[in-house]
Amino acid sequence: MVKNVILWVVIAVVLMSVFNNFGTRGTQQISVLSYSQFIDAVKAGQVQEVILDDHNGIKGKLQGGNQFTSYAPNDPHLVDDLLANGVQIKARPAENESMLMQIFISWFPMVLLIGVWIFFMRQMQGGGGKGGPMGFGKSKARLLEEDQVKVTFADVAGCDEAKEEVEEMVDFLKDPAKYQKLGGKIPRGALLIGPPGTGKTLIARAIAGEAKVPFFTISGSDFVEMFVGVGASRVRDMFEQAKRHAPCIIFIDEIDAVGRQRGAGLGGGNDEREQTLNQLLVEMDGFEGTEGVIVIAATNRPDVLDAALLRPGRFDRQVTVGLPDVKGRERILNVHMSKVPAADDVEVKYIAQGTPGFSGADLANLVNEAALYAARMNKRLVSMIDLERAKDKLIMGAEKRSMVMDEKEKKMTAYHEAGHAIVGKIVPEHDPVYKVSIMPRGRALGVTMFLPEKDQYSASKCKLDSMISSLYGGRVAETQIFGWEQVSTGASNDIERATELARNMVTKWGLSQRLGPLAYSEEEGEVFLGRSVTQHKSVADETSHTIDEEIRSIIDKNYARAEQILKDNEDILHAMADALMKYETIDKEQISDLMARKPVRAPKGWDDDPTPPNKSVKIDTSADKKGGTDKSIGNTAEQN
Asked: What tens digit of pLDDT does each residue of 286-335 get?
């Protein structure tokens, strides 16, 4: 940027000096007099001085200071006339300017303009730098030298299998001769596949950090511009730079932005994107394996990538970076907790057990939220309760303490959530109840949280039935306590989820004895306007009627079970609702006391809460009731 500014300043100064010089020459007032006019002026005493040269040329100055020129014939009396009239006489030989100088002076402005034009043409052809006004074709990849990459495999946790897959790349970059002498070739490219936030970019940086090699990083969207051919030029330039720094790593993040499948209508037709992809394919297939340039790319959409990009010889190896299991989450939390001051009561393994489905980025955010909460409370250390509050915020949403329901709506929400918790606690194979709250969070007025004790990858029919029963626990509790005419719309999300579970049990998972292990909702993927559209084949009317009957049977059976459970434990239902009215949030310790029909302990940290329920600020929610808007829709959240 500084070089460009200096260049433009120099050009401006040169142009100004040249035009000022020529402008000054053109603005001098020099009169041309005939010889007779000159003699008359001499005799009239108007001439102050003259300069005579060998070619009879006359230059002079009038009494007023104006300059003039003239030409004298071979007049032998000229000098006598000048002396007689008191004119000062100077003589000098005629000026003979060289022809080369005359040509240079007359053509210099044109030569300068031609030089500036050539400079810009070179810039447009790639002669300018990345930041130059015409440097479109230069790569935008950011180069990190070996001493700038501080990340190592010690900073990567929760994806041991992925680390093992890429460790041999590190060995190759450290000692390529070890593989080459046996005829082995390291994969030219590795594609990191996984959900967002699982650490794909972190693994790529760790490879460079472990191998101590330069690291080029760029996003797939940085290749594509509005000008056709620019992306291909940037790909060429990036690989040229990489070859000069070999051995090194090129990391392309979000490669699906440029590597989408060609000719499938996916993402629309784009000549620039396809040219960029073609150039990338050529470069990856063109450089030799001995050059030490390894391309690593990351995406969470491998299904949309072009097949030519994934064939052997390009991205030979596909490394899946999945969500971490409970042990992986514990190691990730330990990495992030080492960067914050932690209190002695922090038990990372319990946080890891309560965060199934969290990615590495989610866990980093959890630790950061806990640190922010501790700072707001003017604490010096991050305690366990700070981590619990951060976890609740991320899972259930932020609390809306300023929004306080009236007593009737609050009481109905308390019985609704208590119904979920009691049924979920009693039915077999259900995930344990983690927390119940009637504190509004997000769009929900109340939340019942179920968290598994360990990572689960499948579910039995018994577990699915239990989930449906617990989903209907809220509606059953409302009906049992307040009567059919007073039930609310709060169970809408519960009903939708229970129906979807029952439908999948019948049509997808083959869990209906009457219909057998057959799939009745066959999906057909079709690409339309860049989206994958799912179509369902129609089934016969008789089969469809049977499917509906089976779904109804599953729902009725589990609804009846929820009714019986709450009828048998109505005293617990009342006690839990009262505890929720008092504390607004209860956790598994209080739930265990209630289920054992014991006195309820105060929730942990309730006395230290800066805004307990009795200090909540009440606001008028009548405006939210207008126009038929009901704030109790979808007031139950379950994490399975």
From this structure: 655 446 788 888 888 888 888 888 887 788 788 888 888 888 888 888 88
Token pair 């048998």: residue = 568
Model confidence at 471, in pLDDT bands (50, 70, 90)?
A: very high
Neighbours of 468 (CB within 10 A): 25
- The residues, ordered by sequence, that sit 6+ positions from 394 with a Cβ below 8 Å of its Cβ are 358, 362, 365, 366, 369
What is the pLDDT of the chain when averaged over all its residues?
A: 76
Residues written for the chain: 640
How far is residue 626's CA from residue 634's CA, in Å, rounded to a whole number?
Answer: 18
What percent helix, strand, coil does the chain show, rounded to 5?
50, 15, 35
Residue 8 burial (CB count, 10 A): 11
CA dist., res. 481 & res. 577, Å (int):
11
Q: Which of 594, 637, 603, 636 is nearest to 425 (CA)?
A: 594
Per-residue confidence at 129, pLDDT binned at 50, 70, 90? very low
Compute the chain's Rg from CA coordinates.
Answer: 42
**Higher pLDDT, residue 557 or 75:** 557
Q: What is the arithmetic mean of pLDDT over 588-596?
A: 87
Does the annotation mark 165 as catalytic? no
Question: Given CA atoms 334, 339, 340, 343 in this order, what sign does their dihedral have?
Answer: positive
Say which of 417, 550, 584, 638 is annotated catalytic: 417
pLDDT bracket for residue 529 (50, 70, 90): very low
CB 50 within 8 A of CB 30: no
